[in-house]
């Protein structure tokens, strides 16, 4: 019996942290087959933002990937990580969605469900526990470590005890920033084991350089499992390397008993696959960074803030935003710095700094947070901020999902109307990610391609016969100019920024009014008194007014989505709407006109 067991995470956490969830199914399945012979206690292969990325960017079915991995890895337990009542999304869903999702995942091959809530609100972890046990699978409850102001170890121990009391089979202490040192890791590991007697895993990211030391301290204090990743996807925002941990613990009381050679074989296969992802790997996520040790957000979250600042031509204000992040987090009750909370806090900090009036601009996520729709924060939020954000609305005190009506049957009926099939996997995927799932089911996903994959075919002219794509080929200069255009953009995915070149049909990028994406008005409308403008680049989700409508100061006139956040655009004066410059689906830039009020 090994002294310590290892959970291998490169096919989920590792690739989410370092490859922004872009690993293709063909590579994941091949590596999983090799990992199955290595003797790991479990392979983490499902959950988190990888689910959405597979739908949105890869054109792959996450449940099909899971079944394919199960087919080739039949000897090792498969582990899924789910975000409590939000599962693999960003918003809470109804209980019936949780039930169906867990059942489908279990039937597709998941043995262990690791369940966490970003706020450590135990109420948000109750339904997933019930659903997991209904499938006779193992439920592992997660405590997200947070450097909350004044937070004592007692808070962590209290949550561990609460998870055990509710019936979780094992526990996991997760440190998303890697800030736990030797003394605190020892204290918490001993405290949790003494309070619960449940098996305890630890999952500490490597980005601050402390994880290796904290892991050794934790196993000496009674931890039974450690999260690791194959070397090519280890370190930085991921976890310590499996090869290093196996070797370091050899011939000790904690010897894993794993053969290094078989792990290295799997690692070399992964490294060979990663040669195709050179343009995707984020160097800032791979390196050591001590930001969190200094009370700052890690590079991934600050990359999100930097993108927003670039769109406002205010990059020089990043140091102000860093200070504002700490202030906003304190005012919101010290939520753990984990997705989606890091992005919510960073975005609000940018708004507060750039707008000059704190909390004058709010995302829907901040509003929902302050109304209790994510759950209870670790400590009480600032009363003044709550009044400013909530106005006359009272925060809810119920479990947020208690206010959500059942969703599964409505989703099933919609899919049946679309004639797209209504099996449970399709229905629950549609309930979580409606548009992305429909695009996949219809074959309309705009799939990203790797260097070893055929390039997308250029749209043919009306009188041309389409030709088959040639690997690595590009259209001729005249054809390319006639049929497509390119634009260099900075995009943000999962809190990280990338420079990309987008190539599409003429007009779809430049704003031709005949293109599929409606164009915003030209610069001739910018910016006169009474014109309400977009605060940042984004997509218009709703237009709330029409020409001739009377509006009040502060009334919402449109809703804009940017960086996965929904933002209200409000009237800057009372009056009558004389022009509406945008349509639903329009892509706007900072300071683009939205409406004009006389």
Structural notes for this entry:
The chain is an alpha/beta fold and 598 residues long. It has four domains: 273 residues, Aldolase class I (TIM Barrel, Alpha-Beta Barrel), CATH 3.20.20; 107 residues, Cyclin A, domain 1; 40 residues, no CATH class; 75 residues, OB fold (Dihydrolipoamide Acetyltransferase, E2P). It is built from 21 helices and 18 strands. The strands form four sheets. The protein has an eight-stranded parallel beta barrel with strand order 1-2-3-4-5-6-7-8, surrounded by six helices. A four-stranded antiparallel beta sheet has the order 11-18-16-13, with no helix packed on it. Helix 2 runs antiparallel to helix 11 and helix 14 crosses helix 15.
Short description:
The protein is an alpha/beta fold and 598 residues long. Helix content is 37%, strand content 17%. The protein folds into 4 domains: 5-277, Aldolase class I (TIM Barrel, Alpha-Beta Barrel); 296-402, Cyclin A, domain 1; 475-514, no CATH class; 523-597, OB fold (Dihydrolipoamide Acetyltransferase, E2P) (Beta Barrel), CATH 2.40.50.
């Amino acid at each position: 019996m090994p002294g310590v067991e290892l959970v291998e995470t490169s096919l989920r956490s590792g690739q989410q942290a370092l490859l922004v969830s872009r690993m293709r199914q063909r590579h994941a399945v091949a590596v999983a087959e090799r990992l199955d012979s290595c003797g790991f206690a479990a392979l983490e292969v499902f959950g988190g933002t990888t689910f959405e990325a597979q739908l949105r960017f890869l054109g792959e079915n996450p449940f099909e990937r899971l079944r394919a991995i199960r087919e080739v890895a039949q000897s090792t337990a498969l582990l899924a990580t789910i975000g409590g009542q939000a599962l693999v999304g960003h918003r809470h869903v109804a209980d019936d969605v949780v039930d169906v999702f867990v059942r489908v995942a279990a039937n597709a091959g998941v043995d262990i469900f690791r369940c966490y809530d970003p706020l450590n609100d135990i109420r948000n972890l109750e339904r997933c526990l019930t659903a997991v046990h209904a499938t006779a699978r193992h439920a592992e409850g997660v405590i997200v470590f947070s450097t909350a102001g004044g937070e004592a170890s007692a808070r962590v121990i209290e949550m561990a005890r609460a998870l055990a009391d509710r019936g979780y089979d094992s526990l996991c202490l997760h440190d998303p920033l890697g800030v736990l040192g030797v003394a605190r890791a020892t204290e918490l590991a001993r405290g949790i084991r003494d309070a619960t007697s449940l098996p305890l895993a630890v999952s500490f990211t490597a980005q601050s350089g402390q994880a290796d030391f904290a892991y050794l301290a934790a196993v000496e204090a009674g931890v039974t499992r450690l999260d690791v990743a194959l070397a090519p996807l280890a370190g930085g925002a991921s976890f310590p390397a499996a090869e290093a941990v196996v070797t370091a613990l050899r011939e000790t009381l904690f010897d894993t008993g794993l053969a290094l050679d078989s792990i290295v074989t799997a690692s070399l296969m992964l490294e060979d696959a990663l040669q195709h992802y050179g343009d995707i790997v984020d160097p800032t996520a791979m390196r050591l960074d001590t930001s969190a040790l200094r009370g700052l957000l890690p590079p991934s979250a600050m990359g999100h803030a930097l993108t927003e600042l670039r769109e406002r031509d205010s990059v020089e204000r990043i140091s102000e935003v860093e200070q504002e992040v700490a202030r906003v987090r304190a005012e919101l009750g010290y939520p753990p710095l984990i997705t989606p909370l890091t992005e919510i806090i960073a975005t609000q900090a940018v708004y507060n700094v750039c707008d000059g009036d704190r909390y004058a601009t709010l995302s829907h996520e901040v509003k929902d947070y302050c109304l209790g729709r994510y759950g209870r924060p670790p400590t009480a939020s600032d009363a003044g901020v709550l009044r400013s954000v909530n106005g006359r609305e009272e925060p809810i005190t119920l479990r947020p999902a208690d206010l959500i009506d059942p969703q599964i049957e409505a989703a099933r009926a919609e899919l049946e109307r679309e004639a797209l099939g209504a099996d449970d996997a399709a229905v629950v995927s549609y309930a979580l990610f409606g548009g992305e799932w429909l695009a996949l089911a219809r074959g309309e996903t705009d799939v990203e391609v790797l260097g070893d994959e055929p390039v997308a075919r250029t749209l043919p002219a009306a009188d041309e016969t389409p030709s088959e794509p040639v690997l690595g080929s590009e259209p001729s200069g005249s054809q390319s100019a006639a049929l497509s255009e390119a634009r260099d953009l900075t995009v943000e995915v999962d809190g990280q920024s990338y420079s990309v070149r987008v190539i599409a049909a003429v007009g779809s990028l430049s704003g031709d009014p005949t293109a599929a994406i409606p164009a915003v008005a030209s610069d001739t409308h910018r910016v006169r008194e009474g014109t309400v403008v977009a605060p940042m680049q984004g997509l218009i989700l709703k237009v709330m007014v029409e020409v001739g409508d009377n509006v009040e100061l502060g009334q919402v006139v449109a809703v804009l989505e940017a960086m996965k956040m929904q933002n209200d655009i409000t009237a800057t004066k009372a009056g009558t709407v004389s022009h509406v410059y945008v349509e639903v689906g329009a892509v706007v830039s900072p300071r683009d006109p939205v409406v004009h009020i006389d």
